[in-house]
Prior knowledge:
Blueprint: H1 13-17, H2 21-28, H3 32-46, H4 53-60, H5 64-71, H6 74-96, H7 101-118, H8 120-128, H9 130-138, H10 143-161, H11 171-186, H12 188-191, H13 198-209
Helix pairs in contact: 4-5, 6-7, 7-11, 7-13, 8-9, 10-11, 11-13
Amino acid sequence: MQTTSAPVAWAPVATQRVPSDLARRLEAGSHTDTVRAYVLARRTFLAGERVDMNVLAAALGVDRTSLFRWLGNRDALLSEVLWSLAEPTLTRIERSTDTLGSARLTTVLGDFVATLIEAPSFQGFLKREPARALKILTTKESQVQQRYLAVVEAMLEAETAAGRMHFSLSVHDLAYLLVRISESFTYADLITGEQPSAERARAAFEYVLREP
């Protein structure tokens, strides 16, 4: 089914629904030291290098105390860097997807999984720090999973409000299930030793989202 209006992207609402101290400082734009340090950390991550607080502090010519005051701890910093990459990716996929209802969710989530599996900087992070990556990406220890959940919830809310989807599960519970499916197939090699697979993720999304 085709939509007659421009597709709505819900990814930007995630940071509003799940804020963080670092996100607030970056959004304000007035904390120049915070922005400068964050930009360097993000550039380091995209270059496929480990984001090391000691190295960052030295490169910026400051001590660790100042760096932690600007950015928070390393997990908080990595969470924001990871989400800064996930949000525009989700937004691009949402805006390029012209299907509605369950097909829209399946396409957006499936394409997102495929993008993560193929992203060199992201895969490099998973290989360098698998335990930390799973902690940051798949638990309540950071905002990444919570924001991803917020995006999926927003998409489900829009589709159910328009009468295009009807499920017995609550929006929150269904969104959580879809997020867990996404994580399971994106990080399959770290969780079960199997190969990550966007196609298997799509099949699982289609199965869960099939109309009763």
